[in-house]
Design a protein that fits this description.
This protein is α+β, with helices and mostly antiparallel strands. The chain has two domains: 98 residues; 188 residues, Glutaredoxin. The chain has eleven helices and eleven strands. Strands 1, 2, 3, 4, 5 and 6 form a six-stranded antiparallel sheet that branches. It has a five-stranded mixed sheet with strand order 7-9-8-10-11. The longest helix is centred in the last third of the chain and has 18 residues. The chain starts with a helix and ends in a 21-residue tail after the last helix. The N terminus and C terminus are likely disordered.
Length: 322
């Protein structure tokens, strides 16, 4: 978790679980007329107080635009950021500017996580599990993050044993460069391995997390070479070296980072289970319950997973290799 957002954005995450209506403040006798929430300075001051956003948190407010979902309201996007961590929140302001509403607006007959599903792209991403599974888990993770290490072990140890045919997992890079100095290089190297042999990516994935405590920015390359030599029958060590030195896969990593930010990811690990966001490490029994409920729901709804026709696409031959 980003050090600034860990405390200051906690209230924002909690508020995101439900609707928030903010009523107008009472006028005092003889006071000057109150400005409306369309005044950006006034809105920023109000939200800073509401969410306890200190001076280290930057706040950017978009221009209002008419809401297609809530007649009588205009939409305003508010972005809170600290370093590379970003949180976007959508607010609705009444046309008179006297009330703001923070709410998730759902349409009848539509998957409640459609907005997230539309942004998740799984083609050409490392994956394991069953193609066409009713449940797709997309994991945004950081190789240097100790919490990601815990989550990765939990997923690898349990998922396929419990759900051999019902779950498909996709890996997404989200290195937190500001606090993890070798995380992005680890993502670049992982993509280099994946380019050569998709199945070997998961050996690399497990190896990095297993040796996480031994790796640092200074010895990362030599440590990866140690791994590569153990997979000499599968990985061309010279080609892997060239790929890492030229950072040939950095653009792929950057696309995953951009995708994560578009989804509001600001900490790792963050999972999306058929579009449902789950932030932070989870106990296996809790995740298992969510998956079981989703399997039961998709048996009827069929509006998520890999066979739903939504934007989490069917895997290509490359991305389907285990």
């Amino acid at each position: 978790m980003h050090p600034f957002l860990k405390k200051t954005l906690f209230a924002l995450c909690v508020a995101g679980l439900g609707a928030l209506a903010v009523a107008q403040r009472p006028a005092t006798g003889g006071a000057a007329p109150r400005k409306s929430f369309y005044d950006k300075a006034e809105l920023e001051q109000y939200l800073r107080h509401l969410y306890v956003w200190g001076p280290k948190i930057s706040v950017t407010i978009s221009d209002p635009k008419p809401s297609a979902k809530l007649p009588g309201f205009n939409e305003v996007n508010v972005r809170a950021s600290a370093g590379q961590a970003v949180q976007d929140e959508l607010f609705y302001i009444s046309t008179d500017g006297q009330r703001i509403l923070k709410a998730a607006v759902f349409e009848f007959g539509q998957n409640p996580f459609k907005a997230e599903l539309d942004k998740l792209k799984t083609e050409f991403q490392p994956s394991f599990g069953t193609p066409g599974a009713p449940v797709v888990i997309v994991v945004f993770t950081d190789f240097e993050c100790p919490y990601c290490k815990q989550e990765a072990k939990m997923l690898r140890d349990n998922l396929m044993n419990a759900f051999p045919k019902q779950v498909r997992v996709y890996f997404k890079d989200f290195p937190l460069e500001s606090i993890h100095p070798w995380a992005k290089m680890a993502s670049i190297a992982g993509r280099c391995v994946f380019r050569q042999k998709p199945a070997a990516f998961w050996d690399y994935h497990d190896w990095v997390y297993e040796h996480q405590s031994e790796i640092n920015a200074g010895n990362f390359k030599s440590k990866v070479m140690e791994f590569a030599k153990t997979k000499a029958n599968e990985i061309d060590v010279a080609e892997l070296t060239r790929c890492m030195e030229t950072r040939a896969t950095e653009a792929e990593v950057d696309r995953n980072i951009a995708e994560g930010k578009s989804l509001g990811v600001n900490s790792t690990p963050t999972l999306f289970v058929n579009g449902r966001r789950l932030v932070g490490t989870m106990e296996w029994h809790n995740l298992r319950q969510i998956i079981e409920n989703e399997i039961e729901y998709q048996a009827v709804a069929k509006n998520a997973g890999e066979d739903c026709g939504c934007e989490v696409k069917l895997p290509t031959p490359l991305s389907s290799s285990n």
